[in-house]
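Quick one, tokens below. Sequence please?
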């Protein structure tokens, strides 16, 4: 059996701010009704790059179960020169001024559905905007001295084609950076940098302090993973990496000295992550452990997970 779709409920709330795009004021509403006009159309107006017109049914739209109500619709205008497959997507809400309290009753479909205007659907609205009894009750403020004001806000949703895709990549290709420092005993610089390597869509390098940071000089080997060119990142842009650092045991890879798996969001100001005390210099120089062989030190960074960002503009 085909499921019967319920019409969305109508949401009505009040606010102080008038509608942003169009107001339609009627003086002598009763005389308009006496003309027996079924529908009255406002002047065309522009909003969101398109032309529109309000359609008011003062006695309700009989074809849409609007008898006994005010019915109000928004038509799109001047579509003759649109492409054959045109469409305009809109979020809209209607307004009725409460003249006593100087507030606006906003009326829209409760599900907030976007209205799609196209060749076969040139009008959207609400058949049961307000009951005529409620509207005509002067204490409610909508019809005062036979005058009333309606309004509409139209927010056109433009498809810009912009897309941002964030991918979290596990075990990315080419994900190990290796740095070999030869002649360790003759390394006099405070630190050394590996070559730059692209992993994900970001450039990375290792920064190695062979005798530790100044705060830990002669105590530990300090190693950091650095996001190269981090200064080029746009404001608030982040790059994620889950990584581990290791000092290679060149005799037995099962005895590598490794850090724990470490997560870090890299930014323009926080562009390094690592360990100032990855390995004590005492253990590093212990010839039985294979960290220094022929005066050569090998340090690696393995990136296990990395974020990758792609923009489609």
């Amino acid at each position: 059996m085909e499921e019967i779709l319920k019409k969305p409920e109508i949401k009505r709330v009040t606010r102080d701010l008038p509608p942003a795009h169009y107001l339609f004021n009627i003086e002598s509403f009763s005389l308009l009704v006496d003309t027996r006009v079924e529908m009255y159309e406002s002047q065309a107006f522009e909003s969101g790059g398109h032309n529109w017109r309000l359609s008011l049914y003062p006695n309700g739209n009989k074809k849409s179960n609007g008898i006994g109500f005010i019915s109000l619709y928004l038509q799109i205008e001047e579509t003759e020169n649109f492409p054959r497959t045109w469409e305009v997507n809109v979020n809209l809400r209607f307004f009725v001024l409460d003249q006593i309290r100087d507030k606006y009753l906003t009326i829209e479909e409760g599900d907030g559905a976007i209205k799609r205007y196209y060749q076969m659907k040139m009008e959207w609205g609400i058949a049961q905007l307000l009951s005529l009894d409620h509207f005509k009750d002067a204490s409610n403020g909508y019809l005062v001295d036979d005058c009333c004001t309606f309004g509409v806000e139209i927010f056109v949703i433009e498809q810009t084609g912009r897309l941002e895709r964030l991918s979290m990549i596990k075990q990315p290709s080419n994900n190990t950076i290796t740095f070999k420092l030869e002649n360790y005993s003759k390394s006099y610089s405070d630190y050394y940098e590996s070559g730059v390597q692209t992993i994900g869509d970001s450039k990375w390098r290792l920064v190695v302090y062979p005798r530790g940071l100044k705060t830990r000089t002669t105590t530990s080997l300090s190693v950091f993973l650095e996001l190269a060119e981090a200064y080029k990142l746009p404001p608030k842009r982040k790059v994620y990496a889950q990584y581990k650092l290791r000092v290679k045991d060149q005799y037995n890879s099962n005895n590598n000295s490794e850090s724990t798996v470490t997560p870090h969001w890299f930014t323009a100001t926080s562009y390094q992550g690592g360990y100032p005390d990855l390995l004590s210099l005492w253990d590093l120089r212990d010839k039985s452990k294979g960290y220094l062989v022929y005066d050569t030190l090998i340090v690696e960074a393995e990136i296990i997970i990395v974020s990758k960002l792609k923009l489609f503009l």
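The radius of gyration is 35 Å. Residues 154 and 240 are 40 Å apart (CA to CA).
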